[in-house]
Specification:
The structure holds two protein chains of two kinds. Chain A is an all-beta fold. Helix content of chain A is 0%, strand content 54%. In chain B, strands 2, 5, 6, 7, 10, 11 and 12 form a seven-stranded mixed beta sheet that branches. The chains are: A mainly beta, B mainly beta. The interface between A and B is medium-sized, with 22 and 22 residues.
Amino acid sequence: RKEVEQDPGPFNVPEGATVAFNCTYSNSASQSFFWYRQDCRKEPKLLMSVYSSGNEDGRFTAQLNRASQYISLLIRDSKLSDSATYLCVVNDNFNKFYFGSGTKLNVKP
Amino acid sequence: DVKVTQSSRYLVKRTGEKVFLECVQDMDHENMFWYRQDPGLGLRLIYFSYDVKMKEKGDIPEGYSVSREKKERFSLILESASTNQTSMYLCASIREFDSPLHFGNGTRLTVT
C-alpha cells in the first residue's frame, strides 16, 4: 500500500465550479500535511499547509481528518488559471516526506 | 521568501559523463534534499543532508553521490550518467521537519 494516495483525475470542470480533492495517508503518526500546486514541467509550489482545525486561503480550503486519515482541498469558483496538478505531501516529522501522485485539474471556459 | 536556486534549467549530457547539479538556498536552512520526478513514479528521494558534510541515502541513491561543503549549497553528482537518469531533478530545503519543503525550479536532465 502506498503511503499517500490520490485520485489522479483528470478532473474536468467548468469555470466557476467547486471541486474537491482527497488524499489518504497510511501512517497514523504523520505530523504535517501540505498541498502543492505543480504546473506542467515546473517545480511544485506550496499552496497551503493543512492544520488540524482546517484552514482557508481565499477560494481554497484545506481540511484534515485524522480519524479517517485523509486531507482534502476544496477550490471554489474555479478559474482557468487553477488548471494544474495538485500534490498532497505528508511528513512524519522526521526526514521523510511522502508525496501523492498528484491530481490533475482542468478548468474549462 | 525562501529562494532555492538550481544552477541549470535544462541539461543535455552524454552517457558516461560526470554530471554536477548545483543547488543553493538563501535561508540558512539546515536540511536539504535531492529528488527526481518521473511520470508515473512521482517524486523519489535520492539523498538528504541535515548539516554540512552530513548526508543520508534516500530511496534511490544508486548512481548518485552528493556534496555539502557549505550550508547553503547541496550538490548532486551523477558519477557516470546513464540514459535511465534522464529525469526532472528537484532540490528542496527546510529549516525544521514540520515546515513545508521549498523547491528549486528544477533541472530537466537528458542523457543521450
